Amino acid sequence: MLLVQHIYRLAGSQKNNRFTRSFFPLRFFLLAFFSILFFVGSNTYAAPEPLADGAGMGPNPTLPEPDKSLFPRVNIAPEHGWPDGTTPTSAPGLNVNAFALGLSHPRTLHVLPNGDILVAETNGPAKRNEDGGVKAWFMKKIMKSAGAGVPSPNRISLLRDLDLDGIAETRTTFLQGLHSPFGMALIGNNLYVANTDAIVRFPYREGATEITEAGIKLANLPAGELNHHWTKDLVASRDGKYLYVSVGSNSNVAENGMDKEAGRAAIHEVEVATGKSRLFATGLRNANGLTLQPQSGALWAVVNERDELGDDLVPDYMTSVQDGGFYGWPYSYFGQHIDDRVEPQNPELVAKALVPDYALGSHTASLGLTFYSGDLFSGEYVNGAFIGQHGSWNRTPHSGYKVIFVPFTDGKPSGPPRDILTGFLSVDKKAFGRPVGVAVDKTGALLVADDVGNAVWRVTPAKKAKQIIDVQ
Q1: What pLDDT sits at residue 68?
Q2: Positive or negative: CA dihedral 245, 206, 118, 213
Q3: What CATH number did the domain enclosing 200 receive?
Q4: Residues 20-68 pLDDT 10s
């Protein structure tokens, strides 16, 4: 019955259009046919038992045999939003409060030197000509149900905590008219923003609450009509001479052809002085959370791996990113495990594939990464990694939907992950929120952007807890 209701809703989503009304029966039939295929592939297939908790995480995750399916399995956690007065659940010894509420699809955060917080309110760009046929159309509907279908606000807002009580009293539009912005980096008096199609430079003045000057393009980024992964994350080198920007793949496993993947599934190095760029690392299906590890200075990223190989393949991961390194996509995963769906193969390249440093669980959609260098939390957190896991749409049971912490020693992961924020799913598996970007504010507190809950959460040791109010 729920399937029929879902089909009818999809078929009637444009029923006010005269042309669509005329073909409503045909539209309903086609949607019913393909929905049943999805339903059968997702629900009646006897999938293997899921791995035990934690088996798909760490430096040596369990990698079961591939479990292929014609259509992606679908297990959506429909967006719901937070009931009034509720928050995520913090780990023992920690507390969480709303730093800001009432935002519009906040995805990434950047802390300015004076303590102001920039938040990118953004989503993928509208597509005039959806490529990929019926399957792509259904995937779009699935993402919309999960909260990823809202129009992009295309702005960066500035949040200011005037009295340093852990709650933003003011919110202003800092930059607007952007094009699906995501990554942000400040070098001197210049703010760099990674739109979906270009890195743009804006003049920055400390304390300013808005930028009205037009941006200057520094470098183009791969985009276009077929733009499977639209997010472009950004971080500056320590000396400020280079920007590192991530560009996700244009597909799951290059099913549209490798000619559509030029410059993608990669991290680019862009020279700030000239805008010249080169491929820094490749084979990274969808890297995000670019940041520098405090002890080693190495570039790290979290990476979303491929789908349609089962509930427990392939683990998303975080890894240090080597100059010239190749990380497998699309030919292999987690080192040299061959994905035989990809033809032709490239044995010479696979032989060079690097094993990622640390698996983060399959389909967790890990998107945020920051290292802790503050002094508000106890010493066990120093130099360790906080990771925002946006959450699965195609796994049973759901994975992700939380913020985790991984300790580091001497620049490397040194222990099992621990939960920091949970409770993003309701008892009946609706999504109150979905964590994305993470950052450490000037006081040493952890900030978490929540794009379904339309909030920025602030995590502190329990004695630092503050009341919850909305930002007006």
Answers
A1: 85
A2: negative
A3: 2.120.10.30
A4: 444 445 444 444 444 444 444 444 445 677 888 899 999 999 999 999 8
Query: Are 1 and 108 in a shared domain?
Result: no
Length reported for the chain? 472
Beta bridge partners of 248: none
Domain shared by 28 and 112, yes or no: no
The reply to whether 321 falls in a domain is: yes
Say if residue 104 is in the same domain as residue 159: yes
User: Residue 10 domain-assigned?
Assistant: yes
pLDDT tens track for 412-428: 999 999 999 999 999 99
- Asked if 456 contacts 106 with a C-beta cutoff of 8 angstroms, the reply is yes
How far apart CA 458 and CA 120 sit, in angstroms, is 17
What SS3 state is found at 198? strand
Q: What is the pLDDT of residue 39?
A: 45
Looking at the structure, tell me whether residues 120 and 16 fall in a common domain: no
- Assess if residue 71 is contained within a domain: no
User: pLDDT for 71-117, tens place per residue?
Assistant: 668 999 999 999 999 999 999 999 999 999 999 999 999 999 999 99
242 with 371, same domain? yes
pLDDT tens figures, 296-325? 999 999 999 999 999 999 999 999 999 999
Distance CA 446, CA 372 (A): 9
Q: Let me know whether 299 and 181 are in one domain.
A: yes
Q: CA 460 to CA 164: how far, in whole Å?
A: 13
pTM given for the model: 0.88
Instruction: Copy the structure tokens of residue 16.
Output: 């006010």
Please give the backbone phi and psi of residue 134, each rounded to the nearest 5 degrees, phi first. Answer: -60, -40
**How many domains does the chain contain in total?**
2
Question: Look-up: residue for tokens 């259509």?
Answer: 71
Within 13 Å and on the Cβ side, how many CA atoms surround 18? 0
Q: Are residues 15 and 117 in the same domain?
A: no
Residues in CB range of 272: below 8 A, 6 or more apart: 187, 192, 218, 236, 240, 241, 242, 243
58, part of any domain:
no
219 vs 222: CA distance, rounded Å: 10
- Percent of the chain past pLDDT 90, that is, above it, reads 79
Q: Are 299 and 355 found together in one domain?
A: yes
Q: In the numeric block, which tokens belong to residue 366? A: 């890990």
pLDDT of residue 444: 97
Q: Residue type at 8?
A: Y
Please check whether residue 99 is in contact with residue 466, taking contact to mean a CB–CB distance below 8 angstroms: no
CB 434 within 8 A of CB 452: yes
Residue span of the structural domain in which 417 resides: 83-464
Q: Which pLDDT score, from 0 to 100, does residue 128 have?
A: 53
**Residue 135's pLDDT is what?**
52
